[in-house]
Amino acid sequence: MRTSSILGKFDLCADEAEFPDLDNGYHYPVDARISLFGDTTRWAMVADLLGYDPRGGNLIDVVYRFGNCLTRGEPGVGDFLARVDNMDEIDPHGAEVYAGGVPVVVRGTALAVGVQVGAGTPLQDVFRSLAPANKGLLLADETELRADIPPDLPELLRLDEWNQPEDFGGVLPGGHETFRMIAEVLDSGDPTRYRPTLPANTHWSCWPYAGTL
User: Fold this and answer.
1) In terms of pTM, does the model score above 0.85?
2) Cβ distance 117 to 126 under 8 Å?
3) H/E/C letters for each residue in 111-130?
4) Taking a C-beta distance cutoff of 8 angstroms, is the pair 23, 207 a contact?
5) Pairing with 143, which of 33, 61, 108, 201 sits 20 to 30 Å away (CA)?
6) Per-10-residue mean pLDDT, the chain, length 213
7) Nearest 5 degrees, angle CA 190-CA 159-CA 164?
8) Terminal CA-CA length for the chain
9) How far apart, in whole angstroms, are the C-alpha atoms of residue 34 and residue 46?
């Protein structure tokens, strides 16, 4: 493996709009994560972008996967995992606002909505209020994370925040600090190669125009 080869694959996917984009106009961001896997010959990166998709009518975890050992499909966008079981109860009229008075059921688990989140609250704000305490339930579990990679591939590093370029049309992953360091970790198998100097900006509040199309 070589760092340049990994970055080349990232750049190719970004050129084809197959790389994680927190500024997606159709997807209100809620949470995000990157997981890195690798050994001496194999590497994989799996990214979760969790967000409310009004057109999809659900809170959806979009799972991207990249690597030289994928067991299914091509690098880029993988699975779209709808998380909320009872959308017809929390938004019975499709108005994209919370009906109030009912929990949000995720994978069979009822999540109580805080008293400060009342009827009429935009759904993206409801889901954002639940994310900090329920990250493990909302983002991909181990089975979902490893759906497209070899089951024996060791995990190297997991990032709950990082610095993301504002526009891959201007800065490709290969020219950005975060993804250059990610490629070095994957190439070397050494997670200490990830030493960011740029502030994290993956919190949903950093992307005010995402989801507004």
Assistant:
1) yes
2) yes
3) ECCCCCCCCCCEHHHHHHHH
4) yes
5) 201
6) 92 94 95 97 97 97 97 94 98 96 97 93 98 96 96 97 89 95 97 98 97 92
7) 110
8) 40
9) 6
